[in-house]
Write a structure and sequence with these properties.
Blueprint (H helix, E strand, L loop, with lengths): L1 E6 L4 E6 L4 H10 L3 E8 L5 H12 L3 E4 L5 E4 L10 H4 L7 H10 L2 E4 L12 H9 L2 E5 L3 E6 L8 E3 L5 H11 L5 E5 L5 H12 L3 E3 L5 E5 L4 E7 L4 H14 L1 E6 L3 H13 L3 E4 L3 E6 L7 E3 L11 H9 L4 E5 L11 H6 L3 E5 L2 E5 L8 E3 L3 H13 L3 E5 L1 H5 L5 H7 L3 E6 L1
Parallel strand pairs: 2-14, 3-13, 9-10, 17-18, 21-22
Antiparallel strand pairs: 1-22, 1-23, 3-5, 4-5, 6-8, 7-8, 10-12, 11-12, 14-16, 15-16, 18-20, 19-20
Helix pairs in contact: 1-2, 1-4, 1-7, 4-6, 5-6, 6-7, 8-9, 8-10, 8-12, 10-12
The chain binds uridine-diphosphate-N-acetylglucosamine.
The site of uridine-diphosphate-N-acetylglucosamine has 21 residues, from helix 1, helix 5 and helix 6.
Length: 421
């Protein structure tokens, strides 16, 4: 176990380079199982979720080689295992993408139920609905999901999702890639990492169109070949640094971003008084004086991401006036961090799906506990902005998704260190 020790109150200044997108990486890495030959994946973030996935693939028989920083070469040609190590699978959420990958490549698989951040109940009924539509027989227990071909075999089909689900869209897209026939996913999620996964699969020889819209068409192909692909920059990591600068004040150039992906976040920060300048692949943020209150409702992309809820909440606790923050994807997410922020002096009233945040001009250092990845990131921001010393316990949650967090923040002038307990 480790914790962060943060001496707050220093405005952030300088430049930070954003890493490859966690949620794209954790979809693309399992999808390398579909490929015959070597995939060179660039811009892979060095975070614990990625390390776990690479161990799972290696354990299954993949050849995994680490190249220069951010480069991983993976060859799954010799994999025959259809039952990945349950202990590793349970350590993270996105290991559920192994279900789609095994179904696509081998027509079968037995995968333990995933673990990961438990900020809400996270059902996978829409993933299962997709696998059933593709012709699989599904045996789901409290421990695992087992997929085998159904009596009529596996085949592309139309799948209309009942809720817009990133995970189900990704899993069905991967599963359908090597199946005969055409699959159409309706009411699909449109997150940037879904487009990235489709681009990766297409680079390796898949035939996927419509990713980024609510209808994705996957025409099954017989095989995928190796190739090179670079993962997009992480929208949420970039948003977290932008929120940190908004909260602490300062002036930072956030490099290696796709500004279009950031519009839903930067538009809110501008409403709150931060100055934002978009360049081709970077964003400058300046924040001076007190932020202003605002209203935010989380929604699937292109709406404001639920994965930025906690970080924008910290900005609201420091803004003038009363802000309203409504969660429409994962209702129970507030419970992961609001009480911790209150112990730092924040005034937050939770009323169902909405948090009413009355801003104050100061947060105060305290010992707080991260309960999930983004909640932990928000507590780090709060610690950076607060007067005094903050300890953020359970830093391993944050390390699931932020590459070189301490180094990047230190380079921006923050006083933060990691203490091993
Ligand atoms: C993904 C992201 C996570 C982000 C979330 C929402 C990854 C690895 N994780 O999680 O960081 O917070 O999207 O943007 O990319 N739902 C169902 N049945 C299902 C699946 C989902 O009812 O089978 C519901 C969920 O309870 C939730 C909503 O659909 O209310 C969206 O969930 P989903 O987009 O699937 O989230 P994840 O893929 O788990």
């Amino acid at each position: 176990m480790a914790r962060y020790e943060i001496y707050g109150g220093t405005p952030l200044r300088g430049e930070v380079t954003i890493s490859g997108a966690k949620n794209a990486a954790v979809a693309i890495l399992p999808a390398t199982l579909l490929v015959n030959g070597k995939c060179r994946i660039e811009n892979v973030p060095d975070i614990s979720d990625v390390r776990i996935l690479l161990s799972i693939l290696e354990e299954m028989g993949a050849d995994v080689q680490h190249g220069e920083a951010g480069v991983v070469e993976i060859d799954c040609s010799n994999v025959t295992c259809t039952c990945p190590d349950p202990e590793l699978v349970k350590k993270m959420r996105a290991s559920y993408y192994l279900m789609g990958a095994l179904l696509s490549r081998f027509g079968r698989g037995k995968v333990a139920l995933p673990g990961g951040c438990n900020f809400a109940s996270r059902p996978i009924d829409q993933h299962i609905k997709g696998f059933l539509a593709l012709g699989a027989d599904v045996d789901e227990t409290d421990e695992y999901v087992e997929l085998v071909p159904g009596p009529n075999g596996l085949r592309g089909n139309r799948v209309s999702l009942d809720v817009v689900s990133v995970g189900a869209t990704v899993n069905i897209m991967i599963a359908a890639t090597l199946l005969p026939g055409t699959t159409v996913i309706e009411n699909a999620a449109k997150e940037p990492h879904i487009v990235d996964l489709a681009n990766y699969l297409n680079t390796m020889g898949a035939n996927i169109s419509g990713a980024g819209t609510d209808t994705i068409k996957i025409r099954g192909v017989q095989s995928l070949q190796g190739g090179t692909y670079a993962i997009i920059p992480d929208q949420i990591e970039a948003g977290t640094y932008l929120a940190a600068v908004a909260a602490t004040g300062g002036n930072v150039l956030v490099k290696n971003v796709i500004p279009k992906h950031m519009d839903c976040i930067t538009s809110k920060l501008m409403e709150m008084g931060a100055q934002i300048i978009n360049y081709d692949d970077s964003i400058r943020i300046r924040s001076e004086g007190r932020l202003r209150h605002t209203t935010v409702k989380t929604r699937p992309y292109p709406g404001f991401p639920t994965d930025m809820q906690a970080q924008i909440c910290v900005c609201m606790t420091l803004a003038s006036g009363v802000s309203r923050l409504t969660e429409s994807v994962y209702e129970t997410r507030f419970f992961g961090y609001c009480s911790e922020l209150e112990s730092m002096g924040a005034d937050i009233q939770i009323n169902g799906k909405t948090a009413i945040v009355t801003g104050s001009d100061q947060l105060y250092g305290a010992t707080v506990c991260a309960r999930d990845l983004r909640a932990g990131a928000a507590l780090v921001i709060a610690g950076l902005a607060a007067e005094g010393i903050t300890f953020v316990k359970n830093s391993h949650f944050v390390e699931r998704g932020y590459e070189h967090l301490i180094e990047k923040l230190t380079a921006l002038g923050a006083n933060i260190r990691r203490i091993e307990d």
